[in-house]
Amino acid sequence: MKEMIYLDNAATTLRKPECVRKAVYEAMGTLGNYGRGGHGITLETSRKIYEAREAIAGFFGFGNPSGVAFTCNATEALNTVIRGIFDPGEHVVTTALEHNSVLRPLYEMEKTGVLVTVLPADEKGNISYEEMEQAIGDKTRAVVCTHASNVTGNMLDIERIGKLCRRKGVLFVLDASQTAGSVPIQMEKCGIDVLCFTGHKGLMGPQGTGGICVREGVEIRPLKAGGSGIHSFEREHPGIMPGRLEAGTLNGHGIVGLLSAVEYVKQAGVENIGAYERKLARAFYEGVREIPGVKVYGDFEKKERAAIVALNMGEYDSAQVSDELSCTYEIYVRSGAHCAPLMHQAMGTQEQGAVRFSFSWFNTMEEVEQTVRALRELAAE
């Protein structure tokens, strides 16, 4: 029986550091409910949650731990921000690289009178920064965009976008789902006003964790209202961060696991992790790009990119290729549209989808070589 090869890390990292698994296991038997009560267990839980806020604030070069609000994932974070900062008549600029966790909330806001401009991408998945600048006008409230495409791995120049937003006086909201943990992100240096992240991908934390880092002075309307542990007699949800965006019981067990994951990533080094993952992705790309019938998507002339390679084999549906890799070789990848419809329109793969290979810190070069051999065998057949 072949050993399984997991290359679907852009969806979720399967292999987690041992310290993360241990932290979650121990938290299941020791953690109380954050902010609910004054006894020792609750106070210790509150200390751990604040420690996680401090770690994440430091990790993203953000000086305000109280501006870190926890969510279930990046989708909840992005919905909270997008539904919470725009008023009817205001304008937002986004890109064709976006995941549906950005696009669908924006389409919903469009129904309320928010004006949405989507910058197109070329066949390689690149946008024009000149077009972005031209799109920003007097009514523009924010630029909302991903750091890296979850289909092609192409990265946007967030320092350039941050400078543009500062110059134009608009907010910069970043979706860091595909880069947090493998690409250094410094909010203050890059001019990022709001950063949305998930814990279960490059940060190698538990599923059900994520958050929003909000610069002081940026007001976001709460997506939810309910229990907060404070001001219980008020009819409106408290407006003080981070509780403003954290109605109900937090996923304390997951957050403690996320804290352990962030500490692990910091110790291993974000630069080291990213360089290793990109090395694997580059080796895979070099191994498959000349296989007859294989078409690779994205811009590989740029070294700075997420560790993602998407391809198709001839006219075969991407699901057929993925199923063959799974059933015959026990290589697990992702096929289909990847919740990024505009990217597929740009690539011309609306019907075929794409087979995505995404690499993590726990993959090996041997796994890359085995996967390349498998694709060569499939192409030969």
What does this structure look like?
By secondary structure, the chain is of the alpha/beta class. It has 12 helices and 12 strands. The protein has a 7-stranded mixed sheet, sandwiched between helices. Strands 9-10-12 form a 3-stranded antiparallel sheet. Strand 5, helix 6 (158-168) and strand 6 (171-175) form a beta-alpha-beta unit. Helix 1 packs antiparallel against helix 8 (252-268), helix 3 packs parallel to helix 4 and helix 10 (318-329) packs across helix 12. The longest helix is centred in the first third of the chain and has 20 residues, at 40-59. The relative contact order is 0.17.
Briefly characterize the structure.
This protein is of the alpha/beta class. 39% of the residues lie in helices and 14% in strands.
Strand content: 5-15%
> Kindly state the mean pLDDT as a whole number?
95
How many strand units? 12
Instruction: Give the N-terminus to C-terminus distance in angstroms.
Output: 22 Å
Q: Uncertain spans, ≥5 residues at pLDDT below 50?
A: none
Q: Give the biggest sheet.
A: 7 strands, mixed
Structural class: alpha/beta
* Helical residue percent band: 25-40%
